[in-house]
Amino acid sequence: MTRAGSIRLGVVAGCVAALELACRMRWIDPVSVIPPSKMALGAWKVIASGEYAHDMLLTLENVAMALGIALVLGFSGGVLLHRFARLRRAADPLLASYYAVPTFIFYPLFIVLFGLNRWPLVAIGVMFAMVAMALNTLNGFERVSPSLRKTARVMGLSPFRETFLVILPACAPYIFTGVKLAVVYAFIAVIAGEFVLAGAGFGFKIAFAYNNFDNSTMYGLMTILLLVVGLVNGALTAWERRLHERTGGR
Amino acid sequence: MPEIASGAPTGAHSAAPPIAARLKGVTRVYPGVGRHPPVQALGPLDLELQRGEFFAVVGPSGCGKSTLLDLIAGLSRPTEGVIEFEGAPVTDRVPEGVGVVFQEDASFHWLTVRDNVAFGLRRQGVAEREIAERVGHAIAFMGLREFASAYPAQLSGGMRQRLCIARTLVLRPRLLLLDEPFGALDQQTRLLMGDEVLRLWRETGATVLLITHALDEAAMLADRVGVMSARPGCFIDMVATGWPRERDSTIVTRPEFGAVTARLWSSLRAESIKAMGTLT
Amino acid sequence: MSTDRMRAPYAAAWRDRLDTALLVAALFALWQLLHLFVGGDALPSPMAAARRLQRLVADADFGANAFETGRAFGYALLISWLGGLGLGVLLGAHRLAGEVFEPMLVTLYAIPKITLYPVILLLFGLGVSAKIAFGVLHGIIPVLLFTMTAVRNIHPVHIKSARALRLGPTDTALHVLLPATLPEVFSGFRVGFALTLLGTLIGEMFASQRGIGYMLVHAMQNNEPEIIVALALLLVAFATIASAMLLAVDRRLRHAA
Fold first, then answer.
1. Could you report the predicted ipTM of this complex, rounded to two decimals?
2. What's the rounded Cα separation, in Å, for the pair A113 and A107?
């Protein structure tokens, strides 16, 4: 392990230990924050009971649907923007401001439109994730060196083969960045939606536990979420880094 | 730990010390990190710079030329030995009266040429009127008057180096340290810049230490050239050129010039081969 | 076509602006079409939204709500910007510390921070400070990360120059490090702005009795799509205009780089 890595481990361990101590000694109000050991216990109970499996699955389904739609729409959007320069220039200012707009505000509107079911969640997930995918796809296409296209032309490749055998592999690292961001954003949007208002789902369960003063469950669920997101994000980032290194990218 | 020798106090108004800078028994060892053993980058090395002389340092790659400059400037500390500037020991801060021009472009890209040159003076709290006068003079001296309101990004490499020289010059350094300042420039520009530096040297009366890898440049510009060995660098030869103070790049036409360059190369050749070996 | 743009760059820029306006008009047209498709009870028309917004703004209550949101957002933004800047400088300057904390911060960035809201509410209670905390939670990390990267990427020769010019540490920080990093730091500010706004609004939607976020949720609970759309229109306009202004500043900061 690198020096930084071991220090990091030490810092995390230290913080957890400090929190544990602070809670046990009642320096922090035990009603608000429970000791990490109890959090872990809560997480364990959640998993062991299996009661939350249904909601977890629901959330994952929502994320998957939002992700799928966002990837397709985002990729197509990126391709279109790349293909039609005029559209790109027209959309530039709007795209630059897209993530400045709190698109989450459309969530209540979607609920009015679709009802209190999964579709507002999927919709908001798509809204969040789609543009990141589009922008990164576009970025990837733009970074393809003209020499690659010329080489494909010299080799006499058809446009179809040129795209799939040369261009896409060359863009792969950047498109993958788009995919990674789309995953993260879809997750964030869906869980946020479930949290604020939903009938079921992982985020809903956390809010439910909070409203019922069930701290043990609430923190248990949060811990699980933290671990899952941390692992998924870590794995995607490591993969992304390897893709960039392999293609000699920065 | 370096010995702190008690140097004579620098009387600002009495005669300035004849030795501008002195190094005695100086070494620089980089401590080992992890599995890597410590590296002796420089020394042991002795050097005395006479006040007002133009001294050049040549040597193979990696011999520690830049380290030497950093040590004299106070940008780094020696592992052993004493470094003095005008009789006073050099510590962690760059001594007042020392100016440095680096190899890389050190211009501040967010400031205009004029603001770049004025930068050091402004930080010292000099009055704006005096700043304007001195900056104007320095900019004119370095031939940048037309570009005074331009940003470094709009200038060529040579102009940016002139800007860095002007920025140092305006502070009236008594010792000017130049670390391969023309390394990134093409040959013609280098020759012209050499003339500029000579003019600068004559008009300011400063002591100049020039680090360069170009033997002809060292032979042409300097009163004395020190040849450094491969790492750890020490001086293996000192060549006095004996040029008159009023000189410029046309000195290359003199027959003595060839002799100086030849001598430099004969001293340097074996060391360069040694250095190349250690590069692999 | 491209030589066209090179020869007359101003004309080209105006053509692009016109195209953008056309695109925006097309989006409004799309909205109108959707409205006709799903009906006014589900999705009010653009005109209806505009009219409702006019009435809302004139309404006495609205001022109080807008102020509530604005106040929380303002404080949160200040803390996000300044706190992120300070911490970013520290972590960027101290290599090891930066290396240690960066992965943790990046992970924190990716977590649905909303799930930490209950903790914040438990710690801060139901009030303005909780809202500010929500905003800061979202906004501080990008500012920190961008600043940290900017500080790390400072060209070493600038630091050497500062020493060669005999600058003290404060002068070095203020007159060399700050201007050298400003463009990238400001990019962090822009992202921080957007996320702080988002955090504040979501916080209001989740747990507040006042503010624009609350108005949105309230309107949803009372099935008043007109209000929702009107508020959405307002927020989109605000965010877009603010973002455009920040982008303009950003562009000016990069003129010299």
1. 0.82
2. 10
